[in-house]
Every structure is written in C-alpha cells, then in structure tokens.
Amino acid sequence: MADGSLFDELARAWREGxxxxxxxxxxxxxxxxxxxxxCLSERQREITELRMLSCExxxxxxxxxxxxxxxxxxxxxxxxxxxxxxxxLEASDALIDALLSPVYDLVRDEFFSLPRGDMHRISRLSMExxxxxxRELLRKQRFLSDYGRPFDLGMNALAQLIGAxxxxxxxxxxxxxxxxxxxxxxxxxxxxxxxxxxxxxLGVFTDDRIEEQELFKGLRGSLEWNWxxxxxxxxxxxxxxKAFVLPSAYKSRDPxxxxxxxxxxxxxxxxxxAPLPLAVPDxxxxxxxxxxxxxxxxxxxxxxxxxxxxxxxxxxxxxTDAGGRHGTGSFQDRxxxxxxxxxxxxxxxxxxxxxxxxxxxxxxxxxxSIMRRRRI
Length: 376
Fold this sequence. Notes:
Layout: H1 2-21, H2 42-62, H3 69-87, H4 93-110, H5 127-145, H6 148-167, E1 181-186, H7 187-190, H8 194-205, H9 208-212, H10 217-230, H11 255-262, H12 267-272, E2 275-280, H13 282-285, H14 301-308, E3 317-320, E4 342-347, E5 355-361, E6 370-375
Parallel strand pairs: 3-4
Antiparallel strand pairs: 1-2, 4-5, 5-6
Helix pairs in contact: 2-5, 3-6, 6-8, 8-11
C-alpha cells in the first residue's frame, strides 16, 4: 500500500510538472530542453545541441536567397553601381578590379556564408571555440529569420562609405591613351583628407543601428581592438580611465601609420591601399619643362636623369640644355653591354614645342648616319 501511494504521488507530480511546462517550446534548441537525455554528460549534451543548432541554421541558409551564387554576383554588381553613383564617377574596370577583392570579402563573409567552423569536428573544438560558434550560429539564425532591414542597412553602409572614399579624390585621373605615361598609385595617396575618412569608417561601424542589428560583428570587433590599442588601452582588461583617441588626435599624421593603427587586419586596410592605375597625358607631362635655377644647381642634370627612365636600353649620352651647353654621361644597360651613343636635345624654350629628341648614331665616332630618331 505504501509503495502504491509513493508511485501515485510521483505520477501526480509528473503530471503537474508536465502541465506547467507544456506551453513552452519543446526540444533541445538551446539549453537542456524538456527532452534532454539525462544520461549524457554536460559536455556531450552541449555538443549534441550545438550540432542540432548548426543543422537548423544550415537548412535556413540553404532555403534563403543568400545561398545562391547568382544572387551574390547580382548583389556585388548592384553595390558597385551604388558606389559609383554616390561618388559621381563613371564606372571603370580598373577601379572595380582594384576594389573587388576587399569588397568581395566584406559582402561574402557577412551575408553570403555560414559561420566558419568544421561542423563534423565539433567534438574536437575547444570549449571557447564552441561558445563562440554557438553565438555566431544564433546571430545568423536571427538574421535569416528577418533579413530585410538588416541586409539593406548593411549594404547601404558599405555603399555610402566606399563611395565617400572615391569622392574624396579631388581630381580623379582619367584612363590614359597607350602612349601616355602610366603607373600605379594607392587610393589613400589620391585622397584629399584620409584622416577624416578613417574616422568616418570607425563612426559607421560604431553606429547604434549597426550594433542593434548585430551586423559586421567580427569586423567591429577588429576595429574596436585596434582603436583600444591605438588609444593605449589594454583590449583584454578595459578597466582604464583613458579616453578613446580619434585618428585626428593620433600621435602621427602619416596615413600609413594611421591605417596600421586603426584598420589593421580588416578589408578596409586593403581598400585604402588598393593599387589604382594613374595616367599622365603627354599634354600635362610636358607642360612643366622649363627649369629655373642658379649655376651649379643641377639644371642640366635633372632633365638628363628624367630622360634616363625612358631609355630602357641605356646608352652613352650627350644632353644639350636650353643654353646650348652640353653634358656627358654613360649608363650601363641590363645586359652588361653598351648600346650606340645618343645625342639628347632637351628643348625647354617657350617658343618651341617642349620635348626630348633622341637620335642614335651608328658606330662610336659620331658619324652622321642616323640609326633611329625618336621624340619622347
């Protein structure tokens, strides 16, 4: 009788507990859940629930537009269109090629990929990595459940920021003709005030709306770490009375040092240092060919050194300046030999068309038999 009363009491307690717990969501999504196996250890239970969570997020991702490669490509095209429109620039292949890699990483990592981690080796991950992976999966799950507003907010932020980078170039160099002087420079070297743009980058990713939507969490973490370090604050132990130091108040004004201090290990470091083609038309290159200076200040040596850059074969030369004076010089070519002697007529008079005429002569005795004549 006593045993029967005991079992009846246990059954009644179980029924009452079930009624109290029935309205909640059932199943081990996060935490132990109603049906957690009490025979498992805490670590085994955590690993099992993390695997179930990763499978659920994977299914959500595959059913969303962000699993489509075609959707990713269209997003990149629309983003670059928006960037050039905001910068009031005509789209060019050279600019797109220079910016494509960091912009690709920004969009792919934030929207069109799952949290990084080998789901088949969850049991081998450290406890810290499992906790981090759970947070990333839950954030991705919240995004996929309602991605309309956060996706628009994130893409607009990127378009606005990168568009401001390009708009900060006062006189954007046009692509040159095949005969123009062409070389590469960096985006930051063309900007009018790169310090303010570095500050704008920090401002965009510390905006309350970006934080509320949990966007660019990894990127914001890197920027915050850099900012704390640049301000002399220990990132791990933040109990400091020191204030955050803005880039405009940093100890150095050198753009490269500011990038290393505030944007290191982020895609924006690559954007600021993106190699861009720069063409100098002949009309611009030769409009400053009159050199004024006192005797002995290198008036003849300067144009002679400039011309050497164009003479890849290098040859014994005799330059003539505007005053009719002659100078001599000799350059060794890459093959170790010497090419035929050249006479350089450096024309800098206002009444003549500026330029340099190179005449190569046969032999070494200065015979008037012309081998080739070229105007640079």
